[in-house]
Write a sequence for this structure.
């Protein structure tokens, strides 16, 4: 990883950032995927990363997790990721990847226990605290009842809830999730939002790549990416955030206010008269 110099005053590490990234460039093979990107995740804040297909969202999340090298630097609680001892870092930063392959024939409970590995000495048996964390995480995602079932025998949505429980069981200060709602039905999507809100009140910095824009708009902040560049980081209600969303998605969104909350639908889904009936209004700013 090449370290780029900070520009004093502009790029000073933020005291309140749980995770902060200054990515000058990130290339995959010959392809430049991310460029000139500065962002921060704050403790107790849920940040949704959005943008069109191929914008670089998953690549960015992997760089934030230290899974993908970049030209630039990523700081976890002010300290360069590379300077963290591996075990300590794995306790502080938890990760839920996109389309993670089922871990062989492991039982769901064993998979979630993997999230406790950074808390345990090599080959040490699980402690009472480990078992309690696993149970708490599995109850939170509604999968405790399947703890004896093999991951390979679960449906896509059931498996996703087990993998989410594994990430929760780490009890990290930063939780990064790539498309956590994949395979989840609407009630379980709502449960996920409730879970994230609970983590937020505990001070966790949560970042999630989301394609479900109406759910992303319930986050505290949005990071809008397009073409490997950060168009904007800001609150969902900010006019600048919504302009960035429209720009990223080629102005093919209807962003509407519904009972004081923002939602977004692909333009064309709602008939025009539906949008004009006064039940929902676009941001006037
Ligand atoms: N291994 C690779 N080698 C070269 N280019 C890659 C590689 N992996 C991904 N890319 C390219 O990098 C860009 C960003 O990919 P990424 O998966 O980060 O996008 P994304 O925003 O998460 O997309 P999606 O919404 O479709 O999941 C894409 O143009 C993709 O084709």
């Amino acid at each position: 990883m090449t370290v780029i110099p900070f520009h004093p005053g502009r790029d000073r590490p933020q005291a309140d950032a749980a995770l902060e990234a200054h990515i000058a460039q990130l290339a995959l093979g010959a392809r430049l995927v991310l460029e000139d990107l500065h962002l921060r995740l704050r403790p107790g804040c849920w940040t949704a990363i959005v943008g069109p297909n191929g914008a670089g969202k998953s690549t960015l999340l992997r760089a934030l997790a230290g899974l993908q090298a970049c030209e630039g630097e990523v700081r976890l609680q002010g300290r360069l990721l590379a300077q963290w001892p591996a075990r300590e870092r794995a306790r502080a930063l938890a990760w839920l990847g996109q389309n993670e392959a089922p871990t062989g024939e492991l039982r769901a409970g064993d998979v979630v226990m993997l999230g406790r590995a950074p808390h345990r000495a090599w080959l040490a048996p699980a402690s009472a605290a480990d078992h309690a964390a696993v149970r708490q995480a599995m109850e939170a995602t509604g999968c405790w009842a399947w703890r004896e079932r093999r991951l390979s025998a679960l449906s896509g949505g059931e498996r996703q809830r087990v993998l989410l429980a594994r990430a929760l069981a780490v009890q990290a200060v930063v939780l990064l999730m790539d498309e956590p709602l994949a395979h989840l039905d609407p009630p379980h999507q709502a449960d996920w939002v409730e879970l994230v809100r609970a983590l937020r009140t505990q001070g966790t910095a949560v970042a999630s790549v989301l394609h479900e824009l109406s759910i992303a708009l319930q986050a505290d902040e949005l990071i809008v990416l397009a073409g490997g560049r950060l168009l904007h980081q800001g609150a969902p209600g900010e006019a600048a955030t919504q302009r960035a969303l429209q720009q990223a998605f080629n102005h093919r969104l209807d962003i509407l206010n519904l009972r004081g909350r923002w939602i977004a639908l692909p333009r064309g889904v709602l008939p025009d008269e539906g949008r004009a009936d006064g039940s929902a209004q676009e941001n006037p700013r």
